[in-house]
Amino acid sequence: MSAPPAKTELRQEEKAILEALSSKLGSRITVAYSKPNRIKIIVSPIDLIEVATCARDDLHFDQCANVTGTDFPKDKQIEVTYHLGSIEGAGLRRIILAIACRVPSATPELPSLIEVYPSVNYHEREQAEMLGLVFKGHPNLSRFLLPEDWNDIPPMLKAYRLPGRLEGE
Amino acid sequence: MAAITNFEDFAKRILKIVFWLLIILPMVILPLFYIFYVLPIEISCNFNVLNCSQKIDWSLALYMFDPTKMNPLDPTSYISQLGLGATSPLFKVSTFPGLTFAALLSSMVIWYERKLLAKMQYRVGPLYAGRIEGILQSFADLFKLLFKEIVIPAKADALFFISVPFALMAASGALLAVIPISPTNYIALSPYSLLIAIAILGFFPIITVLAGWASSNKFSFIGGIRALYQMISYEIPLIISVLSVVILAGGSLDLMGIVNAQSKIWFIIPALLAAIVFYLTAMAEVERIPFDIPEADSELVAGWLTEYTSMVFGVINLAIYIKLYALSSLFTLLFLGGWQGPAPIPALAWFLIKTLIVMTIFIIPRGFNPRVRLDQLIGLGWLWLIGLSFANVFIAVILRASGLL
Amino acid sequence: MSIPAEAGLYTQAVDDDKLTVSIGPQHPGAGHFRFTITVEGDTIVDAVPDPGYVHRGAEKQTEYRNYLQSIPMLERSSLTDVTNIIMPYSMAAEELMGIEIPPRAKYLRMIMSENQRILSHLYWMAIQGIFLGHSTSFMWPMGDREMFIDLGQILGGARVTYSFAIPGGVRNDLPEEFKGRAIKTFNHFERRLVDYERIFYNNPLFLKRTQGVGVLPRKEAISLGVVGQTLRASNVKSDVRIDEPYNFYKEMDFEVPSFDTCDTWARCMVHLIEMRQSMKIMRQCLDKMPSGPVRAKLSPQQRTIVGEAYTRIEAARGAMSFHIISDGSTKPYRVKISVPSMRNLIALPRLLIGSHVADMPAIYWSLDYWPVEADK
Amino acid sequence: MTNIISGTFKAFVAGVRQLPKRRMTMRYPDAQIDLKGYYTYDPKLGVAKAGYKGRHILWLDKCTGCQLCSIACENISQAIEMVKVNRAQPNNKKSIFPQVDYAKCVFCGLCVDACPFYALGMTQDFNLVSTTKKALVYPPEKLAIPPNVTRTKVEFKIEPDDAFHD
To answer: Is the pLDDT of residue B79 over 70?
Structure first.
């Protein structure tokens, strides 16, 4: 019953995306994993806008579905992952392309993708306040979900513990 | 008001309630007296209406006393007619065709409306108050409202804020004064009762704007302005639609006369367009769904009623329902032949049956219609209703000129 | 009078022609959500949404619980759509645990998910009715919702929060009386939908209020990344059930509605048609369901692989996706929920600006925004 | 124009047709719906039996005091606490039994799924209202009593044209 899911081969679309990415951007991207329907690449914050523009214009990923920020205190880094989806691209609707970039925890600054994808607006705003990230170029990074009188470190950082919870519980 | 902890507080609260009741009663009745006793004496002039070659004698514009027995310049002749009997003016104003009767009828109509809507909406409606299908629900609500605190917002203009329910009640009550409900049951007779009724309807937009402005609340303000827009743009088609009835009735502005003119045929047949226009405009006047734009609860909380609480709110609502009753009876008088009907049923019963049917027709659209938008409503009013009512005026003139009616 | 900027205060010039009105959170039209609109006459010139009134930190709380224990807590984010919010979570957890759930469990999840879709749409329809001032259209769906709540109760054992689609399958098998009751309910409700059309969807006043109101063109809908009914009403035939079929949606025969009018009316119609399609799917599920186990054996302290999973499904309001990063322990390292409400919220200021004040509730609710779900 | 009139008329007819129909409303305090069956879990099959997840029922003689239900509830609502009961029972040496605080319980039923000894189940009893918080804490002896419904029982009937409580 609990057999691992059968390994399925990557289909043509995924391969085409991987090829296009490697031919366009070469060594500036690293492919973290490529599963059926899911591809994740890692870029440096400097290349982020260029890669995103490439994904939008050449690969037809026309919207951003999700932005995840994850704190990795062991590496002293924060990873920001943009999950891009496509509506207009032929055969691409099932594919989610994730572009991740890591920024140091001390200076969590990275360019905002709002010029490329207008749909990241609220996602970036939410992650900015949840992890203390600074999206350069974002027009409005004011308080979003947290209470107005929030006076603590950003809550999604691992250093923040929920009140009443012991360490390691 | 703080919670009741001892008898002193309790007594204070009761006194406060009695105080407000004492204020409400004279505030309702005094304006009536002012309008119907003092004004007719003071104003005395002559001019023509509709070129009907009638001279208006304002001293006889509206009388509740027997004009033959009184001297307009001698106040004692009024007092000598005062009394408490069933034919006395005081009884008429306060009880039978007047305020109490209308208020009781309105409260029953509130219950009836809730029950009817509940049946349409797959529910049971009021169920427990009064044993029989919640028939006393309105009274339960009344007592609940009486025991609520009256909150006047800190930044509100307290005088105007609190005067609104009284003004509304007075205007609605004044509307009742000119509406006869049978050949023998009436408060005041006047050759110009229709004109007076329409004039009183003109008060309502002012009161609602006053309410919206005095509440010092943005929602109230928007609601008040909307009410102003709506009532003003719907008053014109209302008046024009009534005009065709007046023409059909041979230029009579007396509601009694109009009813008597319908002995052959009810005016709803020759003046069908006018009846439709009157129905729509009256619905807009009393702010009923689909025309309840001024109190649109989803966008404006409760519109111009937002800040009103307690019995103040109750009085406003009661006034609105009395207005609904008054407009329904106007519809009955103007288009459905008033109290006329086959003999075994008395005239008063005919009138009430017809009025209740008209009220049902006023109520039922609430069950299956959404609210219209302000610009659509005003467009409908200025584009269609005015045109339709004018068309009916021409029809009436043609019918009149050709001698068919 | 000038106030120094260091004081953290600022002054704002007052424009006498404009009125700023705060809609919510106590406003009946907004629930646990607030937006401020600036009106000029009857036109909205500015709209600023302000969510966060019911933010409970669901994402943070999952880090303290194992995969099973998060289920009741996550459900409460989206009370009309409970199965659809925990299903992608369970799917992601199963992917990380490396298990495959039995086919019968998938069918049961589909039944529950479609039932939830109808429940959510009926709730939506009720509120849309009352927002347009149509109180009958509030009461009817709320009444008929009971039938589907009862269906959910028979299968899931609770009226609202079933905790049904847990990692490893579903909690319990289909009771015997479910099928007969479901078919009865569908037969009755399909007739009721005709009544709904008569009283609400074909009502001329309803058409007047919704047609041409809040138009979101196809191109903008795609670039803003809206999902669900909002996207489909903007002439995009996109549905995760078709685009990336999960469970057994590949074998189901149903259609995805889309309209080219892109307005509030289209968004209302999409909801109506989807309810019919949901019942169609449920009928097919009940016929095709294989027998077999419904739950894979799974320890509550099941360990996961190191890695991440991104799953998405078509929830009642649109594409709901979970991004779970695992460090191999019994608890997730990071859970990110991308909820359809939050993704549709971005269209709200875009649609409100330039519209009438009276259209504000109709536009707002046509996006099917559920504040608790968006705030997480 | 004809559209407007016919549409309004059809809406009117659809509304008026509801007038004589039977009501869906159940008059709850006087009557209540008849729910059947307990929600129980079969640890051998690893699957539960469907039923309404109301208040718990505890079969005292089967309970071994293993605390698994309490552990399962730990991060969900912490509603279950193990309390000592004065009761000699060979399979429960410590004689501790679960006590449920219904002010905290979320009725997810995961404690039932955690019990390996068929000792815990959930009943169809949902009438848990009380005026004090203390009365909501159900000690093991109280949990062991099967619910007894005294109200009039009604059934929800669905016909092609009508759905009503009867």
So the answer is: no
Interchain CB distance below 8 Å, A145 and C298: no
Q: Would you tell me how many other CB atoms lie within 10 Å of the CB of residue B352?
A: 17
| Chains contacting C (3 or more CB pairs within 8 Å) | A, B, D
Q: What is the pTM of this model?
A: 0.86
- CB contact at 8 A, C107 and C289: yes
Q: What does the pLDDT read at residue B36?
A: 64
- Cβ separation B299–C129 shorter than 8 A: no
In CATH, which superfamily holds the domain spanning C57-344?
Cytochrome-c3 Hydrogenase, chain B (1.10.645.10)
Q: Which pair of tokens denotes residue C144?
A: 């008929």
Q: At what angle do helices C136-156 and C177-196 cross, to 10 degrees?
A: 170
Q: Is residue D109 part of a domain?
A: yes
Shortest CA gap B166–chain C (Å): 28
Residue D11 lies in a domain: no
Of B219, B290, B375, nearest to C42 by CB-CB distance is B375
Angle at B330 between CA B325 and CA B334, to 5 degrees: 155
> Residue D54 has which token pair?
């109301």
Joined tokens for residue A45:
């914050």
Instruction: Give the residue-averaged pLDDT of B36-60.
Output: 46
Contact flag C338-A123 (C-beta cutoff 8 Å): yes
> Which residue from D minimizes the CA distance to B384?
D1
Look at residue D35 and tell me whether its pLDDT is greater than 50: yes
| Residue of D5, D16, D28 to mutate, testing the B interface (most B Cβ within 10 Å of its Cβ) | D16
Which residues does chain C have with pLDDT short of 50?
1
Distance from the C332 Cα atom to the nearest Cα atom in chain D, whole angstroms? 14
| pLDDT at res. C118 | 92
The DSSP code for C309 is: E
Provide the domain count of chain D.
Answer: 1
Minimal CA separation from A23 to chain C, in Å: 26
How do the residues of chain A divide into helix, strand and coil, expressed in percent and rounded to 5?
A: 25, 25, 45
What is the ipTM metric for this complex? 0.83
Q: Is residue D14 in a domain? A: no
CA distance C233 to C271: 10
Question: Cβ atoms within 10 A of the Cβ of A74, count?
Answer: 8
The answer, for C222 touching chain A at a CB cutoff of 8 Å, is yes
Q: In what order do the strands lie in the sheet with C34-40?
A: C18-23, C34-40, C43-50
Closest by CA to D67, choosing from D110, D96, D105, D104, is: D96
B289, B369, B372, B384, best to mutate vs chain C, most C CBs in 10 Å: B369
Q: What is the pLDDT of residues B202-231, one digit of tens each?
A: 888 888 888 888 888 888 888 888 888 888
Tell me the pLDDT band of B54, cut-offs 50, 70 and 90: very low
Task: With CA atoms as reference, report the closest residue to B174 among B205, B207, B199, B192.
Answer: B199
Single out the residue of B229, B405, B255 nearest to residue B336, CA to CA. B255
User: CATH number for the domain including D86?
Assistant: 3.30.70.3270
Give the tokens for residue C17. 């022609």
- Domain span holding position D132: 34-146
Q: For D31-159, where are the E strands, in sequence order?
A: 31-33, 40-42, 47-49, 56-58, 80-84, 96-101, 120-122, 137-138, 152-154, 156-159
Q: Environment class of residue A152 by beta-carbon count within 10 Å: exposed (0-12), middle (13-18) or buried (19+)?
A: exposed
On whether any CB of chain B is under 8 Å from the CB of D16, the answer is yes
* Token pair recorded at residue C277: 């399609």
Task: Please answer yes or no on whether D12 and B123 come within 8 Å at the CB atom.
Answer: no
Q: What percent of chain D is helix, strand and coil (3-state, nearest 5)?
A: 20, 25, 55
Tell me the CATH architecture of domain A12-109: 2-Layer Sandwich (3.30)
Determine, yes or no, domain membership for D47. yes
Would you kindly state where each structural domain of chain A is located, as residue ranges?
12-109
